[in-house]
Amino acid sequence: MIWSFNDGRSEERERNCRVAGHKAKGDILDRCEQIGADRLVTLTYRENLTDSAQVLKDWKEITRRLRKVQHAFQYVAIMENQKRGAIHFHIAVQGRKNYELLRFIWQRVLGKNELGQQMGQVNVRDPHRFGFGKNGIHKLAAYIAKYCTKAMDCREIDQKRFFSSRGISKPEIVQWRLHSDDMLGAVNAAVAVALLR
Fold first, then answer.
1. What are the helix (H) ranges across the chain?
2. pTM for the complete prediction?
3. What is the DSSP string of 101-129?
4. Domains of the chain, CATH where assigned
5. Are strands 76-81 and 163-164 parallel, antiparallel or unpaired?
6. SS3 for 40?
7. What is the mean pLDDT of each run of 10 residues along the chain (197 residues)?
């Protein structure tokens, strides 16, 4: 006979992971809105790189180099596994950036293989074709935020769920206390407050 003992720690860990994922998702939505993100940049590897420690080292290096040359480069990024298992980055940015510079830095970080081929690529999605565009900040943020709540092979449980540039201000939160005896009164008061803003 095999006895199993569950002291509740694994259930608690799963619950904490879900809560952290939902909080991270909200943070991504807020930060994308704050920077006005309207374009999606993807950094990929030529090889089937699945070593998250190496990927994080590469990420740290590209952000270090970017800060040296483009101080105002604001982004919100996540790591994701491709179907083949390779890790890549989705990065939300605002407006047209110097993508040639970004590609140059990414390829310098990764180098070339023995055949002289670049080991990395940078792809930029047209915001209008992809459905983001000028008013699509929420769509773009939701697209990358969905990975925060998923269990990912590329991320350990205690690792960051997303990365963002320094200096992104947090949105101002205004709270209103509404006093009403019924639901309809509360809704009417909320609409009146919204119209004042």
1. 9-35, 52-69, 99-110, 127-130, 137-145, 183-196
2. 0.73
3. HHHHHHHHHH-B-TTS-BSEEEEEE-HHH
4. 9-171 (3.30.70.1910)
5. antiparallel
6. strand
7. 52 74 84 86 90 91 86 84 86 81 90 90 75 67 74 58 80 65 77 70
Question: How far is 182 from 128, CA to CA, in rounded Å?
Answer: 44
Q: Who contacts 124 (Cβ-Cβ below 8 Å, separation ≥6)?
A: 39, 40, 41, 42, 99
pLDDT recorded at residue 165: 84
* Alpha-carbon dihedral angle through residues 88, 27, 133, 105, given to the nearest 10 degrees: -40
Residue 125 backbone dihedrals phi, psi, to 5 degrees: -90, 130
Give CA–CA dist 47/120, Å, rounded.
8
Query: By C-alpha distance, which of 167, 176, 172, 173 is closest to 195?
Result: 176
